[in-house]
Amino acid sequence: MKVLIVHPHMSLYGGAELVIVELANYLTKNGIKNSILTLSMLDEIKKDLRGTELIIPKGKKEEKKGIFKFLNFTSETLLLRKYVHKYRKEYDVINVHNFPAEYAIFPFTKNVVWMCNEPPMQLYLMENLKFPTNFIANLTRGFDKFLIKNYVKYSVVADDFNFRRFEKIYGIKPEIINYGIDYDFFSKGNRENVERKYDLKNNFVLIQVGTLTPLKNQIESIKVVEKLKNKIPNIKLVLVGWGDEKYKQYLENYVKKNKLEKYVVFTGHLSREVIRDLYKACDVALFPIKSQGGWLSPFEALCSGIPIVTSSLITSSDIIRKNDMGLVTNDFSGAILKIYKNNENFRDMADVGRKFVKENLTWEIFSRKMLNLFENV
Questions:
Q1: Can you give the pTM of this predicted structure?
Q2: Could you tell me the domains of the chain?
Q3: Which of 168, 243, 288, 310 is the most buried (most CB within 10 A)?
Q4: pLDDT (tens digit, 9 = 90+) per residue, 332-367?
């Protein structure tokens, strides 16, 4: 068997990219030839791959931007499709990942498995559009549903939340395969490596890890600190990640305007090694995320044994609530205050989560189930 993995851009080492790296390395380890077709890739990601062939069109280093967000994917899709067409006969299975990779398979009838990290909500969250934008959007949605129903053999989601969302959009029941977590890696952080650099010692430290975007909702974490700074005088928030420059500027301006500089730390992009050290140095991991991304980070934090607080909208909330691994709420300030006052009890809750992650959320399990689907098609 030979597998072609397609992902639009790997210029950010986020959760979707980690999924591909772990899957590709598993395939390689098990003697299955695999390649990644993408328009850009960080050197950091290349170093983590073990024997995967890379297909990266020349001259495409940055993600293309456009005026209409729902049309941004057009030129990228055509380029990906060109290369899928060029190489498809060499592969037994095409495994597409983030939007618009799934569009690159049209109109081929090759065996396709779509790792739908989340449905392309760019197409389904547009309201009050005027002509001709609404007309184009409706056509695009119609084509999206036609494509998935007729050209994808298996669609895969990571949790019940996305299962329900996917079924509502497409009228199809996808497979559920939970992502894996590198427990051995994230459980070995050393707080001493970061305490002095980020001035964390003797503070009650919150951390949020993730790309800076409105959907990851870092502004809410900042507002939590603003509300609690008088009740928890030594509170501090560490925001790890980079992304949307306008949103980052908005966050920084809010911090400055409300005189929160001593309470909030922006670290920018950090290696996974530094992130695991930070988890060990923090008291709570906070994820007020809306219904997009952020699936891995709460579980990575649990590997360090620290309590987690997530929104009810984060797609992993069902797993967290069902297994009593953390606080799922939209009252983030109230949740943080509870943990501050009863830290030992919530450390026990985090320990339950840590054990669950270790035993149930592994990349071995995820990759083996994905391989089973490849073999089935």
A1: 0.86
A2: 2-180+363-376 (3.40.50.2000), 183-360 (3.40.50.2000)
A3: 310
A4: 999 999 999 999 999 999 999 999 999 999 999 999
